[in-house]
């Protein structure tokens, strides 16, 4: 049963020495009162000495010595149980009326079982039985066989109740620890999910910014060169820069919107392979002569693969626009196969020659992967996430190429 914080029961549980002292005083008072009532020389009662002596000061002191140690029952229960056997044996040997002194031993037995380990609690049970048997064998206690059964049952009941309380406390403590572990695991999972989401947003932002800013830079350079010679061409370039800036702002607002906490973000659909013609047209307007070939039967792609493939083409064309040179051409080949999506982006420009490298779904294979920028790192992560294979490096006839294969089988996407 739970107790309300601040209640009397909760306060007594926190200050157990006070509650145990009250129990010891009440038990001692009842025992002495019992002895005083029996001081008129009545016949021996249950578990009394065969011929009780008249009560005197020593009788009261020994009886109190059996019950007052209950006040310290939680600090040294086993030691106090053994210690109370001495005044109890003195009461039996001197044929004094024990009163309720044996209840002190029962309380201490229960305390050992509830507060100590199994071995010590069994030892306490043996001590209690030994104290009772010693009194019987010495002839100072003369109970009948039903009394033996009752005494055995009472001792076992006190021991079992104490052990049950200890096991219940251990079970509740384990539940609390398990709840704490689950809470910590949940917080760790939440932090990992947040970090993964931030990484994804960072990749999306880089892809959007790098692509659009690169196109805007090329257009601005063209507008600057044509401003005095062909104002109309410069005006068209500035219009393209304006449109590209608006598009970039729209995509950035859509991505960054998920970080807002003041309300649901307005998010449009993510781009995919169906947007490749528009992407190729943008690159043509920016000055990169780009051609697109789509082979095989088009079919629906998993959303993650669809976005990853689009971003790969976008990043590859952006790098060609920035590094291939003004007279370069680029080709994009998309091949739809039954169990695989293949993408090949190449240009014939003067891109830096770097050793080809491959990346598999389970990690990097080889060194010297082309480029050290965040864009190529993002491509690697996207392809590896879906178990694909990526190759980045110089093209055989000059220029640069990017090849990727995305598996489309269910087992590869799991």
Descriptive report:
By secondary structure, the protein is α+β, with helices and mostly antiparallel strands. Among the domains are: 8-143, no CATH class; 284-414, Histidine kinase-like ATPase, C-terminal domain (Heat Shock Protein 90), CATH 3.30.565. 60% of the residues lie in helices and 11% in strands. The chain is built from twelve helices and seven strands. It has helices at residues 8-14, 16-37, 57-67, 77-93, 101-115, 118-137, 145-226, 231-256, 276-285, 303-323, 374-385, 410-413; strands at residues 289-295, 329-337, 340-347, 357-360, 363-365, 389-394, 400-407. Strands 1-2-3-7-6-4-5 form a seven-stranded mixed sheet. Strand 1 (289-295), helix 10 and strand 2 form a beta-alpha-beta unit. Helix 9 packs parallel to helix 10. It is rod-shaped and about 130 Å long. The two termini are 47 Å apart.
Short description:
This protein has 414 residues and is α+β, with helices and mostly antiparallel strands.
């Amino acid at each position: 049963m739970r107790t309300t914080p601040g209640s009397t029961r909760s306060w007594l549980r926190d200050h157990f020495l006070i509650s145990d002292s009250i129990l010891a005083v009440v038990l001692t008072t009842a025992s002495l009162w019992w002895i005083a009532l029996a001081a008129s020389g009545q016949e021996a009662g249950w578990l009394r000495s065969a011929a009780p002596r008249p009560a005197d000061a020593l009788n009261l002191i020994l009886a109190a010595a059996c019950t007052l140690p209950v006040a310290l029952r939680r600090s040294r229960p086993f030691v106090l149980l053994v210690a109370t056997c001495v005044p109890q044996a003195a009461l039996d040997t001197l044929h004094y009326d024990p009163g309720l002194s044996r209840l002190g031993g029962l309380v201490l037995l229960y305390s050992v079982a509830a507060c100590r380990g199994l071995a010590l609690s069994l030892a306490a049970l043996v001590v209690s039985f030994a104290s009772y048997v010693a009194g019987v064998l010495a002839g100072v206690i003369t109970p009948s066989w039903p009394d033996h059964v009752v005494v055995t049952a009472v001792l076992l009941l006190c021991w079992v109740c104490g052990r049950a309380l200890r096991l219940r406390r251990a079970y509740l403590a384990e539940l609390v620890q398990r709840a704490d572990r689950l809470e910590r695991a949940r917080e760790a999972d939440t932090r990992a999910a947040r970090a993964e989401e931030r990484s994804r947003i960072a990749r999306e932002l880089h892809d959007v910014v790098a692509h659009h800013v690169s196109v805007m830079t090329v257009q601005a350079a063209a507008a600057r060169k044509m401003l005095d010679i062909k104002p109309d061409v410069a005006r068209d370039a500035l219009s393209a820069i304006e449109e590209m800036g608006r598009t970039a702002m729209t995509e950035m607002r859509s991505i960054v919107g998920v970080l807002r906490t003041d309300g649901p973000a307005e998010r449009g659909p993510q781009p995919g392979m169906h947007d490749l013609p528009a992407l190729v047209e943008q690159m043509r307007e920016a000055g990169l002569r780009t051609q697109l070939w789509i082979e095989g039967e088009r079919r629906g792609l998993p959303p993650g693969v669809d976005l990853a493939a689009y971003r790969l083409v976008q990043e590859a064309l952006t790098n060609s626009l920035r590094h291939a040179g003004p007279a370069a051409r680029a080709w994009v080949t998309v091949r739809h196969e039954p169990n695989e999506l293949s993408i090949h982006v190449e240009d014939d420009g003067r891109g830096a020659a770097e050793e080809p490298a491959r990346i598999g779904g389970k990690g990097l294979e080889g060194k010297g992967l082309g480029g050290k920028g965040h864009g190529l790192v993002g491509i690697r992560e996207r392809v590896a996430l879906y178990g694909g294979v990526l190759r980045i490096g110089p093209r055989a006839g000059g220029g640069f190429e990017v090849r990727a294969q995305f598996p489309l089988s269910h087992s590869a996407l799991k």
